[in-house]
Amino acid sequence: KTVTYLEAADAIDIQPPQRIHQLTEVLEALMEHDHKHHHPLRAALVVSRGRSGLPAEGFFLKAQSLNLMPAVTAEEFHQTCLERLFDEETPARNIQMDGENSHRTS
Prior knowledge:
- The chain is α+β, with helices and mostly antiparallel strands.
- The chain is about 45% helix and about 10% strand.
- The protein has a two-stranded parallel ribbon with strand order 1-2. A two-stranded antiparallel ribbon has the order 3-4.
- A hairpin with a 2-residue loop joins β3 and β4 (about 100-105).
- α1 crosses α2 (about 20-35) and α2 (about 20-35) packs parallel to α3.
- The longest helix has 18 residues, at about 20-35.
């Protein structure tokens, strides 16, 4: 299940001002962490209400800066990210951040 940026900001109790900007910084750090540890991009679960179920442009720009986005459409890349997240065979499917360490929760 995906959530909107506002729902994600509410879920992690981000306070004003600039809630979405603060969330974006968290999501970009999460993308860096997931990439470094070869995990699926959990930031793909956060989508924009106005983009037909896709994350905001910053998600794709960050993916490009990490050299994660091959020459496919944004829609195809996002779908691949979601498939990896929900694939039972993905080794780090249920990871959590714990300081600098991550671990399986199941």
